[in-house]
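A quick aside before the break. I want you to see a complete sequence-to-structure record at least once, exactly as it would be stored in a machine-readable document. Don't worry about memorizing anything.
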Amino acid sequence: METTQATSRRTGPETRPAALATGPGHVVVHGNPAFRAMFGDGAVGLPARESMLGLPPAAFDLLDAVLRRGRPLARWIRADDREWRLTATPRREFGTNEVYGVAFHLRARDDLPIASSS
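That is the input. The structure line, written in tokens, reads:
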């Protein structure tokens, strides 16, 4: 019997920057350890455009669109000479369902699962 097992190179939360941001300025209110390693501890508490240096304007366009449209979006971006998949989803207020922010993460292209048979 042949099984397929997903393995990957350089995977896990330590390699995938993720954060929560609020409002139209995308003020970062939480960042995981990978986010803090990539953008610095000082990035938390600041607007994304001021603290996430090195990301192209298209990254912030995506965050703006998620906040405005209220639906998840993703795209490939280039930062630090690497390709990253930026995925963002709206954060909604409980009870009113109003979108108040975005949750997002980056995953490097070379951090994609590789299927192997055992």
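Two observations worth writing down. The two ends are 9 Å apart (CA to CA). Residues 1-8 have pLDDT under 50 and may be disordered. We'll return to this after the break.
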